[in-house]
Amino acid sequence: MKFGICSEIFKEWNDVGRAIDYVKQVGYDGFEIAPFTLSQYVYDIPQNTRREIVKKAAAADLEIVGIHWVLVGPEGIHLTHPDKSVRDKTAQYLIDLANFCGDVGGKVIVFGSPKQRSVMDGVTYEQAFDYAVAGFERALPTCADRGVTICMEPLTHLETNFCISAEETVRLIDKVGHPNFRLILDTKAMAFEKDDRATLIRRYAKYLAHYHANDENLNGPGWGEVDFGPIFQALKDIKYKGYVSVEVFNFEPGPEAIAAKSLEYMKRFV
């Protein structure tokens, strides 16, 4: 498996090249980009910026893993909205995201976006489910063309009311039935699952294409009470070859400390 880290902790640097160089220096294999750190709308990120990311990553010998936090920023976007025009706009935005991801050399789009997927008043869960299927189906041909996989993320009931477990999320993945639509598991987001994290990793191994490492306290791996030993053992047991990317929500310790301490901790288990 390979180690990555998410870009939003470096947002205040306002220099993606500097962040790429630092991530490589610390010892990571990849860099995962949050598009909102570059522009409110992904389609407004200029081609020269996209080319510069590719150039900087190549110079550092660092892989661009993909993108996440993908619906943070744009307005009027909602995957399961009752208004078809909103859903159409969202499907097109997914296509725009796939093109950006492909342009910078990324392979994975992490779809979390709890607020922009939640079931709204007047919509049943099954209606929302069908809306989500249709939206992803429209974007997936572009994903396939660009070599990009959308990874659907189960999130907790504290964040959303749609796909709040790995089981629900896999039902959606099975319904879509496309090889470029798979599963991401997230340490924090599995906090309320009935089964432990290692069990879920093994159960859904054939769906798993990406993993986010963090702690229930919103910090990085090794910064809290979650024991990653069983998690990494399960990943090794299923012969996981993808990325384990550090994603934190508390930026207070600073990017240097977050990056270095998290990687040092994770490497104990591999």
Task: Lay out the secondary structure.
Layout: E1 2-6, H1 16-26, E2 30-33, H2 47-60, E3 63-67, H3 84-103, E4 108-111, H4 125-146, E5 149-152, H5 166-176, E6 181-186, H6 197-203, E7 208-213, H7 229-237, E8 243-246, H8 255-266
Parallel strand pairs: 1-2, 1-8, 2-3, 3-4, 4-5, 5-6, 6-7, 7-8
Helix pairs in contact: 1-2, 3-4, 6-7
Describe the structure.
This protein is an alpha/beta fold and 270 residues long. The chain has a single domain, classed as TIM Barrel (Alpha-Beta Barrel). Helix 1 runs parallel beside helix 2 and helix 3 (84-103) packs parallel to helix 4 (125-146). The protein has helices at residues 16-26, 47-60, 84-103, 125-146, 166-176, 197-203, 229-237, 255-266, and strands at 2-6, 30-33, 63-67, 108-111, 149-152, 181-186, 208-213, 243-246. Helix content is 39%, strand content 14%. Strand 6 (181-186), helix 6 and strand 7 (208-213) form a beta-alpha-beta unit. It starts with a strand and ends with a helix.
| Head-to-tail CA distance between termini | 9 Å
Let me know the largest β-sheet. Answer: 8 strands, parallel, barrel
**Estimated helix fraction:** 25-40%
Q: How many separate helices?
A: 8
| CATH fold descriptor | TIM Barrel
Count of folded domains:
1
Q: What is the average of the pLDDT values?
A: 97
**Rough shape?**
globular
